Automatic annotation (TrEMBL):
Ribosomal protein found in the keyword field: no
Bias kind Basic and acidic residues: ranges: 80-91, 123-152
Lineage top rank: taxon: Bacteria
Keywords: Signal
Chain ranges of the DUF4124 domain: 11-63
Region described as Disordered: 56-152
Composition skew (Low complexity), residue ranges: 108-121
Signal peptide annotation: 1-20
Identification of the protein by name: Uncharacterized protein DUF4124
Length: 152
């Protein structure tokens, strides 16, 4: 008689093939179809499913950089220089406009800080929109300066 431990190990060894990750569709000589995960000695079997890893997503393959087509429109150096000059002029106009708006916003904030009763003038809720406007124009000016700094 086998010891329980030996019996358990024997059963575990036999159970391994039952945990196969492939599903087969087998047809016998009489035309009967059997679905099994243990093909054994059966013939006329076709694989119909294989277990896949939990994540079946694969990253898309990197596409090689395609060369620029020969008929692609090209910009000459002179034309590009003119475009860059136009861009710089537009950015300078926007910067001047934002600077003017910032000055006006600062004046409005100063007027609000000086106006009204002493307790009301120092009210953060009342001054917040004016402070926000000043900060907005300051951020716009910083962004425009950064953009102008990246020009060639």
């Amino acid at each position: 008689m086998m010891k329980p431990r030996t019996l358990l190990l024997s059963l575990l060894c036999l159970a391994g093939p039952a945990l196969a990750d492939t599903l087969y569709k087998c047809t016998d000589a009489e035309g009967r179809t059997t679905y099994t995960n243990n093909k054994g000695g059966a013939k006329n079997c076709a694989v119909i499913s294989r277990d896949k890893p939990i994540s079946t997503y694969s990253a898309p393959k990197a596409q090689p950089n395609a060369p620029t087509p020969g008929d692609f429109p090209k910009v000459g150096a002179g034309e590009q220089k003119a475009r860059d000059g136009d861009r710089r002029a537009i950015l300078e106009q926007e910067l001047a406009s934002e600077q003017k708006n910032l000055d006006e916003a600062r004046k409005a904030l100063a007027q609000q800080e000086a106006a009204g009763p002493a307790g009301q003038a120092r009210s953060p809720e009342r001054l917040k929109p004016y402070q926000d406007t000043v900060q907005l124009h300051e951020r716009n000016i910083d962004a425009l300066k950064k953009e102008m700094g990246s020009l060639k």
